[in-house]
Amino acid sequence: MHDVKAIRAEPAAFDAALARRGLPPAAGELLAQDEARRAALAAVQEKQARRNAIAREIGQAKKAGADTAALETEALTLREEIAALEAEAEAAEARLTHALERLPNRLDAEVPDGPDESANVVLHVHGAPRPAEGVKQHFELGEALGLMEFGRAAKLAGSRFTVLSGALARLERALGQFMLERHTQRNGYAEVSPPLLVNDATMYGTGQLPKFADDLFRTTDGRWLVPTAEVPLTNLVAGEILDASALPMRLTALTPCFRAEAGSAGRDVRGMLRQHQFWKVELVSITTPEQSADEHERMTRCAEGVLTELGLAWRRVLLCAGDTGFASAKTYDLEVWLPGQGAWREISSCSNCRDFQARRMNARYRPAGGKGTEFVHTLNGSGVAVGRALIAVLETFQNADGSVTVPEVLRPYMGGIERIG
Length: 421
Description:
- By secondary structure, this protein is α+β, with helices and mostly antiparallel strands.
- It has 2 domains: about 100 residues, Orthogonal Bundle (Helix Hairpins), CATH 1.10.287; about 300 residues, Bira Bifunctional Protein, Domain 2 (BirA Bifunctional Protein, domain 2, 2-Layer Sandwich).
- The protein contains 12 helices and 18 strands.
- The strands form 5 sheets. An 8-stranded mixed β-sheet has the order 1-11-12-13-16-10-9-4. Strands 5-7-6 form a 3-stranded antiparallel β-sheet. It has a 3-stranded mixed β-sheet with strand order 8-14-15, with no helix packed on it.
- Helix 3 packs antiparallel against helix 4 and helix 5 crosses helix 12.
- The mean pLDDT is about 95.
């Protein structure tokens, strides 16, 4: 959510920020709604002052034995006018909120311009990508091993689901446990087990609602299945005032995630790349404004460390304006090399949302030694997507005989198994 005071102070700059995202100007419409709201509230205050004065006049007139009929008639009229003006102010505020909540976050100055992923900037490459020649894709390996089944998954739930069994089910679990323990024991994140079903306010707080309702699954009682643990983890501080000494707050969770993938028809239809249900380790940080830029770098390094320890080739990419998510001011994507596809694919997005989500959630902190409160900054990142890590491990460490070598860091979680075959 945007601060209307900042829009009022620099409307041209706000429209320029929208233009970077390919959106038309909106400051004029927003400020018109804001002016209507403020004018109605000012009129309410003026009429309330008059009503209070009339109340005193009626009291004085009654003491003097004077006729108060005219004053009482005026008081009744004022009460009706105040009610109408309050309704007008509420309607203007609702229109303003409706418009604001659909506009994306303002981009960081470092975010490059560009319409889509073709303008993203590769900042760093780690490891040597395995040549794609002669290697199989993950679904070919998994099906040949008899441990990855898409037909049976479709029988149970339809398309975009997978059944893993045996060593691959264990490998998936091992990946999640390895990531979670690394982030809690070495990176200073506190583990949380959050609800997987949340209410409208929680989805609204992180920006999933109202804009992305079609990408979500909703239950018959009005709750939503979380598309990522970012949603419940970030909303833990919704409506709260934190002490500055408690920040940064670093949280992590290993949860299933549920996505309708409404706009992905025809994309990645084979295999596990784009699923309705998948596991992910999420990282969330709540910080002061002064901390958030450094925390963004730290969070991204934490996710990179997972990929490095797994022995995967990866690269850090700075997303351009046209590819940066709705709530983010700046995003780094981590892409992992998939030799079976011969392509780099996203496995983590680490985003600094600044105070955009905090304004929606009304999440604040009290600065040390200062007066009043300020909005916190929120950050989130994948640490990392478990299913895509599984794909990368299978394709990177496959052997000529169709077996897969288990990365050393995962063997303690696999009962010492060194090879799946």
